[in-house]
Design a protein that fits this description.
Layout lengths: L3 E4 L11 H11 L3 E8 L15 H14 L5 E9 L5 H10 L4 E5 L2 E2 L2 E2 L11 H18 L5 E2 L22 H14 L2 E5 L1 H4 L9 H9 L5 E4 L12 H11 L4 E5 L2 E5 L2
Parallel strand pairs: 1-2, 2-3, 3-4, 4-7, 7-8, 8-9
Antiparallel strand pairs: 5-6, 10-11
Length: about 270
């Protein structure tokens, strides 16, 4: 069973699940290793009703205690999902230098002052304009930031667009997607295969299989796997399908992180 390196708990503002329940769900599935990656999005307060700010010392202490409690039954790594926003560059760089974690996911949930979940972001834009602008802002951020290990759910905007992925064709955006993938490769950053796309009814992971394949074609080797679980029943969801997708895309290994260093495992 693949290791799940994108799991949320009730330390996050968008989950009500105690960490121990996520651990028990992983054990029941035979998952050997997980990483708790709760949300921390400095500067998001004015753009969303969800509290995406962690009290970091209590959070990290809580996950470490959990790891000790489950030692010998499940390897639990400490992680965090940092929201990448250019105006928060100083704070994010300070955090990254001080965070004693195994793994940092970098994510983009906000664009041009809007939560991409918010209908207001899409007002006055064609679908292609909305999606392209999101990808463009992602590219701008990863060019600047080094404070993450893996880029989370690259095309997650498809979860929230008015038509979701009904009209989405990866090839229509591949020029800018190629630039994103090349920057990740050049900077030694991983790409995440996030299986929550199935939960959202997309029928694909985030990013789409064509993007995962393109990442491999360009020479990308660092690939993390995450369920983006907010509830116990979502832990490890669709991981068997993900393993087949990785093989079909040409990946012989996937990546976990321990003390911010990549470790390669066979799917």
């Amino acid at each position: 069973m693949l290791c799940d390196f994108h799991i949320h708990t009730d330390y996050s503002g968008d989950s009500k699940t105690p960490p121990a329940l996520q651990a028990e769900a992983a054990i029941a599935l035979g998952i050997p290793e997980i990483c708790i990656t709760d949300h921390h999005d400095p500067g998001s307060e004015s753009m969303t009703h969800v509290h995406y700010l962690l009290e970091i010392p209590p959070y990290l202490n809580g996950i470490r205690r959990l790891a000790e409690e489950y030692e010998g039954k499940l390897a639990i790594r400490t992680g965090i999902e940092l929201g990448l926003m250019l105006r928060e560059q100083t704070e994010l760089e300070r955090l990254e230098a001080e965070l004693p974690v195994d793994f940092i996911l970098g994510s983009c949930h906000f664009t041009d002052g809007y939560d991409i979940y918010d209908r207001a972001y899409y007002a006055g834009k064609t679908e292609k304009e909305a999606y392209f602008r999101y990808l463009e802002s992602t590219l701008e951020r990863i060019r600047v930031f080094d404070c993450f290990d893996s880029l989370a759910h690259l095309d997650c905007i498809l979860r929230y667009g008015p038509e979701k992925n009904r009209n989405f064709r990866p090839e229509d955006y591949m020029d800018i997607i190629d630039e994103i993938l090349k920057v990740l490769i050049e900077k030694g950053k991983a790409l995440e295969c996030n299986t929550a796309g199935y939960k959202y009814g997309l029928g694909h992971p985030n990013p789409h299989e064509a993007i995962l394949k393109r990442y491999h074609e360009l020479g990308g080797e660092l690939l993390t796997i995450g369920s983006d679980a907010h509830r116990p029943e979502e832990v490890g969801k669709e991981f068997a399908r993900a393993a087949e997708i990785l093989k079909d895309c040409g990946f012989r290994y996937y990546t976990v992180y321990r003390e911010r260093k990549p470790v390669f495992l066979k799917p």
